[in-house]
Fold this protein.
Amino acid sequence: MIDVSLILPTRNEASNIAEAIARAKSVLADVSYEIIVVDDNSPDGTSDIARAIAADDRTVRCVQRVGRRGLASACIEGALAASGRVIAVMDADLQHDETILPKLIAPVLTGDADIAIGTRYVSGGGTEGWSDEREAQSQFATRLTRMLTKTELTDPMSGFFAIRADQFRGLIPKLSGRGFKILLDIVFAASGNLRVHEEPFVFRGRESGESKLDTPTAIQFLMMLYDRVLGHIIPARFALFGAVGSLGVIVHFAVLALVFQGLGTNFLIGQASAVFVAMTFNFFLNNLLTFHDVRLRGWALLKGWVSFSLVCGLGAIANVGVASYLFSEAGVLWTISALAGILVGVVWNYVMSSRFTWGQL
Ligand code: GDD
Ligand code: MN
């Protein structure tokens, strides 16, 4: 019988994975365990290294995912492949203090807790070698998360924990699986039904390799929080699409001012260039933010831009059509008519570009 399945998610950790496995093995010596490396087809060959270790050691396995990305979904696939009673998740870059691992596993194995979480924000825990800026960002995100989600967890952003395997797998249908905050995903899905144990640890500095946490990931995280709080009223993607659209209006006016006022062209040329630039700007920003998880690259990007332009062109016709009908035929106030036209245009653009440009819905 296997007590613990340890999941090590990896993306470009060729320089760390062997050491991470070795350290995990040394602290797990007292329990029966398996180690599952879930690698997202890292170009640096992390999967090959993990497989070479697995070939010599039956406690180690590698799940190599092709065409799928994301820390949260990697942990979920690891959990689905696991056979232990407890599932533990630890970063593979040596930043999580592996000596805490037995203290996370023990209370879950004995049944004293359903989930045990490594936390940086109680006494005895902390972060090592972080800039003041990174520290402040993390504290801010933690406070925001605690406030918005009303969680009692001291470190809801932690990615270092152990949980009863049957409970984890039972919650999987309810998980969003998006982004990198698997713990929050689990805690939300469980809606207060998990008995939690917290264990302080010091988050180490990274010695080699790079963090995968970039600005788009952070925005995705904010989207997840938003979804949690307001998502049932206006979906996060639509809100972001609308926000990008508002920026597009600013770009439109900037270009119009430059071309029409600055260069002194006729209005038609000014307006046409402004539409072209603003639409292109919106397409790329939406691709980067709103549809980050399914973003287009290479040739698909060019095709996407064409379909986005077509969708928005029709959206503009719908906008003008609705607004002028309301104004001239139905006698509605001009401001309300214009707003209604804009709303119809935005919803059209969102629904149609989700479907035809990014293949969603
Ligand atoms: N399979 C897979 N797919 N693994 C990934 C991916 C991915 O898309 N992105 C990152 N990982 C792996 C990394 O290789 C590493 O082992 C671990 O997940 C953490 O990724 P880092 O990029 O090193 O994250 P970090 O150090 O910035 O963030 C850590 O701190 C957060 C708290 O601030 C992580 O531990 C998070 O889990 C934690 O919430
Ligand atoms: Mn890291």
